[in-house]
Structure formats: C-alpha cells, structure tokens
Amino acid sequence: MSSLIATSGAPSPPLRALAFNCSLKPAQRPSSTGAMLGDVRDALAAHGVETDIVHAAAHNILPGTRSDEGPGDDWPALRARVMAADIVVIGSPIWIGQPSSIAKRVLERMDAFIAETGDDGRMPSYGKVGAVAVVGNEDGAHHVGGEIYQALNDLGFSLAPNAMAYWVGAARSAEEYRELKPVPPSTMDATQLMVRNAVHLARLLQQSAYPPKA
Amino acid sequence: MSSLIATSGAPSPPLRALAFNCSLKPAQRPSSTGAMLGDVRDALAAHGVETDIVHAAAHNILPGTRSDEGPGDDWPALRARVMAADIVVIGSPIWIGQPSSIAKRVLERMDAFIAETGDDGRMPSYGKVGAVAVVGNEDGAHHVGGEIYQALNDLGFSLAPNAMAYWVGAARSAEEYRELKPVPPSTMDATQLMVRNAVHLARLLQQSAYPPKA
Amino acid sequence: MSSLIATSGAPSPPLRALAFNCSLKPAQRPSSTGAMLGDVRDALAAHGVETDIVHAAAHNILPGTRSDEGPGDDWPALRARVMAADIVVIGSPIWIGQPSSIAKRVLERMDAFIAETGDDGRMPSYGKVGAVAVVGNEDGAHHVGGEIYQALNDLGFSLAPNAMAYWVGAARSAEEYRELKPVPPSTMDATQLMVRNAVHLARLLQQSAYPPKA
Amino acid sequence: MSSLIATSGAPSPPLRALAFNCSLKPAQRPSSTGAMLGDVRDALAAHGVETDIVHAAAHNILPGTRSDEGPGDDWPALRARVMAADIVVIGSPIWIGQPSSIAKRVLERMDAFIAETGDDGRMPSYGKVGAVAVVGNEDGAHHVGGEIYQALNDLGFSLAPNAMAYWVGAARSAEEYRELKPVPPSTMDATQLMVRNAVHLARLLQQSAYPPKA
After folding, report:
1. Which of the four pLDDT bands, split at 50, 70 and 90, describes residue A1?
2. Claim: this prediction has a pTM higher than 0.95
3. A70 in contact with B at a CB cutoff of 8 Å?
4. How many Cβ atoms from other residues are within 10 Å of residue B156's Cβ?
5. pLDDT of residue B12
6. Residue D4 pLDDT
7. In the B/D pair of chains, how many CB contacts fall below 8 A?
8. Which residue has the higher pLDDT, D211 or D3?
9. Does a structural domain hold residue D211?
C-alpha cells in the first residue's frame, strides 16, 4: 500500500495539550503533581506544543457519567477544552497506592464518550493521545499509570510507548517531588521520552485518523 | 509542518501479527482463549494481515528477564517471532480475576527490551502495536486488559484505542466462549474494532518510526 | 498457650455495621449498588447486626487526607459513624472497570488513620472488619474488590475470606442488578458467605484486639 | 453472646508458617525476595512460629488449576505443606510493576480450593492467614500486594491489617534489598507489624473456625 497520509504543501496546525492536575489540594497550595506537570509542559513546549493546565479541584465536576450533569456542573466547559486538545495528560498524586478520587472523577466524566460513539464506530476522543504524570512520596506510580492507561484506552485515547512521567521516593519515604533540586536526570529523561513519543503519535493521528466502521 | 511520512511509489510491506495463546491448557485441549484468538486472526486476515499463533504452554519459556536464559530456553526463538511482527496480541484466560501465569511469563521475558534500549533511547519493540484478547467464565477482562496494557506500554508497544477483544459470562457463570454459538454480535464488534484500530496504528508506525533521542 | 479470649458471664455487645453506598447517583434515584447493600443489610440482620447505610453522594466529603478538612466538610460526622462500627462495607458501582470516584474519596479520607496511628502502633481502625459490595452491568467486580481490599488493608481493616458480595452481567450487557427478579441464588450465596465470615471475624476481634507494639 | 472460644487447660498447638519465595532466580543465586523472607522468618520466630520456606522456582509446578496436574507435578507435595501451615506468605519480586509469573502460578494452583469447597461452604484454606512480602528496585509493592490480597481472599485466606512486608527504592533506582546494610528501621517496623498481626489472627482462627453454612 502507499502512504496513508496525503502530503500537501500546507503545514499541519500546531498540536495542543491539556493536562489535568488531579491533586487533592486547592490550587493555591503547592503540589508535587503541579511541579511534575510544569516539567511536562516545558518538555511539550520544546516540541512547539502549548499546554493548557486545569487544576481539577478548583472546578465543580459533578458525579456522573454524562457529558452534562446539569446546573452547576463545570464539566461541559472542561469537556470543550478536552475536545480542543490533541494530547490529554492525567496528572495524579498517589494515595494508598492508587489514583486520586479527582483523577477518577475526570475519567468517569469521559465515560460519556462511549455513549457518544458515532454511527461510524468512533468515539469523540478518537485521534487524541493520552498520557500520564504521577508523583508520590513512595510506591505506586506504575499502578496509577496502569489504571489510567486502561481507562484512557477504553475511552478512545491512543497510547505511545512509555506514556508515563513519574517519580516516587523509596519505601516509606516522605520526600516531595516539588522539593527535589534538581529533579533526578533519570526522571527528566522519562518525562522527555513520554513527551517525545506522545507528540509523534499525535502528529500521525492528526494526519491520518482511525478509519470508520465499514 | 509537512507530512511525517515520505510517500513513494513503492508499496509498504504487508503487516504481520503474532498472538500468544497464554492458556494454562496443553495445546491439544480446546481452549476458549484459542477460540477468541481464532476470531482475532480472522479479523486480521480481513485486513490482509497474517497471524502467527503461539501456544505458549507448548514451549519451555524459562523464568527470567533476559532475552536468553540459557540451555533449554525456547524464548530466543519466540523472541525472533516477536521481532518479526508488527502487531503482538497477548491472549489470556482469566484466573482469580487476573492474567494467567503464562501471560505473565511472556511479558517478563520482554522485560529484556528495557535493558536493550538503544543509545537513541528506543527499545527493540518500538514501532510495534500491542493488543489483548481475554476470555473467562465470568468477570475480570478489563483488569486483565489493564495489567497487560501497562506491561506492554512499559515494554515499548503502542496501543490503539479499544485494544482489547474480550468476552466474559455473568457473575459466577460457567459458560465457555468456545461453546457460544454464535458469538454475540457485540463481542464480534469489539474484536473487529480492536483489529481495525491496531492495523491502522501499525501502518502509521511502519511508515513513520518514533524519533530517536536528540 | 491458653485461649486469647477472657471468657466471662457478661454477653458481648451487639455488632454494628456501616455501609457506604458509593453510587454516582443522587440518593433519590434507585441504584443497583443500593439494591445490593439492601441484600447485605438483610443478611447482616439475620446475624443480629444492625446496618447504618450512608449514601455518600448526599454528603459533602471534601477532598483531602485529613480527618477534618475544615468548614463545610461532612467527613467528621461520617468518621464518627465509621468509628462506631465493627464492620465497614464499601459499596461501589463499576465504571470503566474500576471503583467509583466516590468510593475512592471515602477511602482517601480514611488515609488519615495512618497519621493517627497510636504510640502502640495501632490505627484507630484496628479491630474493624472491612468488606466490599460491587455491582455493574458487566465485568470488573474482582478488580474493584481488589482495589478496595488493598486500601482497606493498608488502612487497618481486617478481611475475612470471600469478603465481597457482587454481581455483574455478561460482557457488554446492560442488565441492572436492581431489576433482577429474583437475584440469582449463587449471588445470594456469595452475599451470605461474605456476611457470615465478616460477622465471625468481627466477633473474634471484639473479644481479642490486635496486640500493641512491644 | 459469650466467648466464641472454649477455654481449656490444654495449650494450643504452636503455629506454623509457610513462605513461598517466588523469585525468578534459581535457588542458588542470592535473591532480595529471599532476604526479605529471611527477615519475615526471624520476626515469626520471635513469636514462636516456625517458618518453612519454599523456593518455588526449584519445583516443577505445572500449569493448571487442579490440585494434581499429573505426572511430574510437584504441586501435590507443596499443597500438603500449605495445608500444614497456619500462615501462608507469598514472597514476590516486582517485575514491570506486577507480581512474578511464579507467584501467579502458586496462586493459580490454589484456585483448586474453590472447587474443593465442602458441603458446609468452607474451602480447605479457611482458617489460614495470608500475608505478602514484596521487594523491588523501584515502585510496585502496593500493587503487587493488592493483586495477591485479592487472590488470597478469593482463595479462602484471612488478612490481618497491614499484611505486607515490603521495600522498594526510589524511582528508577537499581538498589537491591539484599545489599541494604542495615535494612531501614521503617521497613523492619512494617515487617514486624505484619507478623504481629498475622500471628494474632492465626491464633484466633485456630481457636475459633469460621462457621459452616447453616
């Protein structure tokens, strides 16, 4: 077969990223998840991708699995920002070894994409790339990543390899990512790798969408 | 930017798939995982993709995390078949709600890809698409999928949306997928969706590899 | 050694249970999680145990991991009800194969027990028995159970064998537990088994507490 | 009610523990899982409990979910040692953030307990206490614990609070538990806590079994 991608002289539009900071803390308090997402944003910027960061706890995201849960629901406006993004990053702290309740809430609201699958078999999220950023005092990043990967995959997102930026301290440590100076080079490497792969995949999907159901 | 993909008159080589049947049963006994992988193979064939199916329990895959664990190890030959594939499907039954020990063994052996990361920051598996096929009497497919997604993602595979073909019966059911006549249309739909997306992503990555570390 | 339990003529006080309904729905809408918790309550009543059911979504449980997150926080009153219970049941629906955000919120608030560990090495929750009740249209009960078991275990609860009452339909089913008439006998058996074991363990721990740190 | 436990002048028999070392390495190579199980054994000995340690990779545990998978199967002899134990510890390394394939194999073979449930509704494992010991270079202990808790709970074991002894290094660390000198006090504390609670629960269950189905 020949190339899937019709080449033309016109440049592709720039990619856009949206990152949810799913810290349990109010926006005004410093969060390690926020520090990690700052590093992710910088890495994305180096690829020419602008990142919109949402501090989820500052919004009233009602419980439910529809795209609009009625009066007072801040999700419809956030959903519009998801729709405008090519790359969606779920940033979560680790509590009890698991993703935060706020990360879970954001994912639940995207469950509506399943009901919104088109007649062509594609969800509104098809073509978007998912990624994860996780920090904790100790232990749990890979599991938090795994839970979020599974949810994002079910919800129509694609995942490039090594789709997680993360840091955790040693067992029973109380270290905080936001206080690490400098961030360990191996952590910066993982962040840059995650971003490099996500950007590549997002560009491919921008140029060549998943096919509709025959 | 212009297209990532250099178009030429030459056709792309056909895609190849490898599926591991990680049933606990010997190859000669009928397995529901095998029945599901047969459906996956048929769906891949409709896209012109040939599938090589490995009954993992019929091979002596030694414990360890290196690409060759020494005398008697069947993994090096299987690894060569992984390397030849564009799409790798992990087919697992559900036991105690979790992936089989044999699925875990196959994934562990691919852990060697991490140590084999090139100076350019890419694992030998980069460019391959992962997928999952799961069957069980009851309950557990999404978790089995989630565990395998996380492992495949760590190990360098890309995941298209809805990367799992699956079937389970109702709570505490003893039904067997291989005895369902016909397979429920919603299950066939999920299988075809998984395959359609995986094939699209594999073609994109065949034409445009993840970039090396700068 | 002789018996751990000092026998006396005085009867033990009756056991009390608290169940959280972690449905995403408002309290006034019928929920399958609520139907399952009704069955759990009936089974507990047959053992002389009274059950207090909390519809968590009807309370303003603020995000955080302290026992009191300040003005407007309904958790301190709920925490007092947890403290009064011998058996704590987390009832969760399954969304995207995972526990609900509300179940996660309830567990996060009990994370404070870790910081409240006494000088004797025991958390405020020591001596309490945890249990799980899960319902979903399809697939995911064992994983939801597993996530909640791990959290409850970290948070100081004990688990009797088969600590989950559950029901799910077959793959991609849209059946609702609350509409099943009758509930399948195998589901009722599992519910009664969960309750029988939890009650036995709670009585043992009521009579003989975990020992303090030497 | 009065005490569940009939007191008598006769001392209870001593408790016995069985620990599976589910390292991927041959028995003759030093393993961090083995080092952790040595610490668990010492902590159990301080409570008068003798521990039988099985290096699972040194046995031919055939794939399957029956108590005897036929000629060459070493499980029947290991199963007898499980049956003789009051406390069963699953010791697993972390690979790709998950339990080892060998830990999974051991758990799968205990799946037979479900089919062996007596007419009284009790599995052969009822009355036994489960526990977990996990080590890894980095990240994953709580998830490995969670997977094993869920399996052990399904398979009839009881879990005391804080049922996991564990150690992991910081993100992307290559430290080995067996080379830590000394083991961090917080890790020794967790190991002793796990053991203290498991022993207490095992003594209670030795004196007062879960009741049969009415």
Report:
1. very low
2. yes
3. no
4. 24
5. 81
6. 64
7. 72
8. D211
9. no
- Taking the Cβ of residue C150 and every Cβ of chain B, the question of whether any pair is shorter than 8 Å is answered with no
The shares of helix, strand and coil residues in chain D, as percent rounded to the nearest 5, are 35, 20, 45
Across the interface, of D139, D186, D190, the residue whose CB is closest to A168 is D139
Tens digit of each residue's pLDDT (9 = 90 or more) over B156-168 = 999 999 999 999 9
Contacts of C63 in chain A (CB under 8 A): 24-25, 57, 100-102
Q: Give D202 to chain C, closest Cα distance, Å.
A: 11
Q: Touching check for D125 and chain C: CB below 8 Å?
A: yes
Q: Do D96 and B108 touch (CB under 8 A)?
A: yes
Q: Which residues face A168 on adjacent strands? A: A136
The reply to whether C154 touches chain A by the CB within 8 Å rule is: yes
Q: Which pLDDT belongs to residue A3?
A: 61
Helices D185-207 and C185-207 pack at an angle, to 10 degrees, of: 110
Write the CA distances from A212 to A208, B87, B193, integer angstroms. Answer: 12, 20, 9
Q: Is residue A72 part of a domain?
A: yes
Domain span at residue A20? Answer: 16-205
Q: Do B147 and D63 touch (CB under 8 A)?
A: no
Q: Chain A contact for B125, CB < 8 A?
A: yes
Which residues of chain A have a CB within 8 Å of the CB of B49?
Answer: none
Q: Is B64 on the interface with D (CB under 8 A)?
A: yes
Q: Which residues pair with B98 in a beta bridge?
A: B95
Amino acid at C35: A
Q: What is the CATH number of the domain that holds D29?
A: 3.40.50.360
Residue B194 has pLDDT above 60, yes or no: yes
Identify from C4, C123, C126 which residue to disrupt to test chain D contact, counting D C-beta atoms within 10 A and taking the largest count.
Answer: C4
Average pLDDT over residues A37-48: 98
Dist CA D125 CA D113 (whole Å): 7
- Predicted confidence (pLDDT) per residue in C25-45, tens digit: 999 999 999 999 999 999 999
Q: Which residues from B are below 8 Å from C185, CB to CB?
A: none
Please check whether residue B76 lies inside any domain of the structure. Answer: yes
**Beta pairing class for B50-55 and B98-99:** unpaired
Q: Do C140 and B138 touch (CB under 8 A)?
A: no
Percent of chain B with pLDDT over 70: 95
Q: Letter for the amino acid at B26?
A: P
Q: What is the ipTM of this complex?
A: 0.95
- Measured CA to CA, the distance from residue A202 to residue A211 in angstroms comes to 16
Residue of chain C with shortest Cα separation from A26: C63
C7 and D2 in contact by Cβ < 8 A? Answer: yes
> A187 to chain D nearest CA, in Å?
8
Nearest to D146 by CA among D128, D126, D166: D166
Beta strands in A35-128 (DSSP E): 50-55, 87-95, 98-99
Question: CA-CA distance, B203 to B127, in Å (whole number)?
Answer: 10
Measured CA to CA in angstroms, residue A211 lies from A98, A118, A126, A128, B194 at distances of 35, 12, 10, 14, 12
pLDDT tens sequence across B134-157 = 999 999 999 999 999 999 999 999
Return the pLDDT at C11.
Answer: 72
- Give residue-wise pLDDT tens across range B32-75: 999 999 999 999 999 999 999 999 999 999 999 999 999 999 99
Interchain contact A146–B (C-beta under 8 A): yes
Query: What are D114-172's pLDDT values in tens digits?
Result: 999 999 999 999 999 999 999 999 999 999 999 999 999 999 999 999 999 999 999 99
CA D127 to mean position of chain CA atoms: 14
pLDDT in tens, C140-171: 999 999 999 999 999 999 999 999 999 999 99
Residue D105 has pLDDT above 80, yes or no: yes
Residue A52 lies in a domain: yes
Indicate which of D20, D25, D100, D104 best probes the interface with B, i.e. most B CBs within 10 Å of its own CB: D104
Total domains present in chain B:
1
Of D146, D169, D171, the CB nearest to A141: D171
